[in-house]
Design brief:
This protein has about 70 residues and is mainly α. The chain contains 4 helices and no strands.
Length: about 70
């Protein structure tokens, strides 16, 4: 089903960034269900600055996520 079929409109469906929720598998699932725009999890700038090893995985983007 598309957004228009469900809601009767062509407004885009945008997935908000949510820490601990919007990981890669969840974003792919949302894309399959009709989301138009997805974003990665909320990522700490401090973790990026100090090159936290767990943070890099949160930045992963799958080709299926592109518009």
């Amino acid at each position: 089903m598309t957004v228009k079929e469900i809601y009767g409109t062509d407004f885009p469906v945008i997935l908000a960034p949510m820490a601990g929720i919007t990981d890669l598998p969840f974003r792919i699932l949302c894309k399959e269900q009709g989301a138009d725009v997805m974003v990665t999890e909320m990522i700490s700038a401090k973790a990026l600055q100090y090159k936290n090893k767990n943070t890099k995985a949160l930045l992963a983007i799958h080709p299926e996520e592109y518009p």
